[in-house]
C-alpha cells in the first residue's frame, strides 16, 4: 500500500472509529470491513462523509455519492485520493 494511501486510510479509520465508538456493534474493525456490517447506520455514513470532507478539505462531488464508495474505509480512502487528484469519474 503506497504511503500516501496508507495515511489516508489511517486518517479515515480514526474518523470512523470516533463515530463507531458511539454505537457500532463491532468495537474494532479493519479498513476492508463493510461499514454497515460493523454497525454504522446510514446517518453514521453521512456523518462520516462530512467528517471526511472536513478532514481532507475536499468537497465530495455528487457523482461520488454511491454505496460502493462508502462500503469500507479502503473504498472511502480510494475515493478521497481520486477526488484530491481530480481523477474521479
Automatic annotation (TrEMBL):
This is Aminoacyl carrier protein 1. Gene3D superfamilies: ACP-like. Residues 6-84 form the Carrier domain. It comes from the Bacteria. Signal peptide: none annotated. Pfam families: PP-binding (PF00550).
